[in-house]
Design goal:
Blueprint (H helix, E strand, L loop, with lengths): L1 E4 L4 H9 L3 E3 L8 H11 L3 E4 L6 H6 L1 H19 L3 E7 L22 H16 L4 E5 L1 E3 L8 H6 L3 E5 L7 E3 H6 L1 H4 L5 E5 L7 H12 L3 E5 L11 H4 L8 H11 L5
Parallel strand pairs: 1-2, 1-3, 3-4, 4-5, 5-9, 6-8, 7-10
């Protein structure tokens, strides 16, 4: 049995929908360490997938204390409560925001340029210190075709007029369905941090232009000033059988699931 935190969130809900032998944790917002121990113990689970977080970068900047509680202390409490259970924590590609080169980045170097990234780096270090066999998934910007919070796919297919992405900006975007589909192999990963998601050699401008053309959307793709790259090399996790579609292929798969392509 697998205990899933954030089971009603963007990632957690997809894991609950597609994965077997999962049970939802109650809300862990502002809970004590003793509360976390009780939830883990009473769940009957032998593994934990931790997806709960405050992931909005602006919110973390405005309220760093809330970010610290959610993004550092909660996973630390889970690590202490795990007691031999496999622990999977979702981290973020934001851990590369402060690096000076353009990537693609491997797992060895991280540097934060915002509060959210700083807290994710501290979370990884502290959790792995407590549970060396825990797995940190440095996830990309994820998308889905369902209604809900804004994401790359919905932003593009619902656009009117134009969208803007940089021809010098490189990063991966990942179909959240493929994240859930990979959980069985993720559970077998050795402890450590892993870049986790779809890869591409195309810029965000090129990815978006190809996607718009494939769907024949009446949307103009404009070139935007380039942001810092969040371009990850995911070869480490691929060696363990964790596989994602290439970025453009993943988007087309999502479009087919959404009924926009046959």
């Amino acid at each position: 049995m697998i205990l899933v935190t954030g089971a009603k969130g963007f990632v957690g809900s997809k894991i609950m929908e597609l994965c077997k032998d999962v049970v939802a944790a109650p809300s862990l917002r502002d809970v004590s360490e003793d509360d976390v121990r009780r939830v883990v113990s009473e769940s009957g689970a032998d593994a934990i997938i931790h997806t709960a977080a405050i992931s909005d970068i602006g919110t973390c900047e405005k309220d760093p204390e809330a970010s610290y509680r959610a993004n550092v202390l909660l996973p630390v409490y889970l690590a202490r409560a795990a007691e031999g259970r496999k622990l999977i924590c979702f981290s973020s590609d934001q851990v590369y925001t402060g690096l000076e080169d353009d990537g693609p980045y491997t797992e060895e170097r991280v540097k934060a340029a915002n509060t959210y990234a700083k807290h994710k780096i501290e979370m990884e270090e502290r959790v792995l210190d407590i549970c060396p066999d825990a797995v940190m998934l440095r996830a990309e910007w994820m998308y889905d075709c369902g209604e809900g919070r804004p994401n790359y796919y919905r932003n593009v297919v619902n656009a009117t007029g134009s969208v803007s992405f940089g021809s010098g900006n490189f990063r991966g975007v990942t179909y959240v369905k493929e994240v859930a589909e990979n959980m069985e192999n993720v559970m077998k990963l050795p402890g450590g941090a892993y870049n986790f998601g779809s890869e591409t050699t195309k810029s965000m401008y090129e990815v978006t232009k190809d996607f718009v053309d494939s769907l024949r959307l009446d949307v103009k793709v404009e070139d935007a000033p380039s942001l810092h790259n969040l371009w990850m090399d995911c070869s480490k996790v691929r060696k363990f059988g964790v596989a994602f579609s290439e970025v453009s292929e993943g988007l087309l798969r999502c479009a087919r699931d959404d009924g926009r392509l046959s």
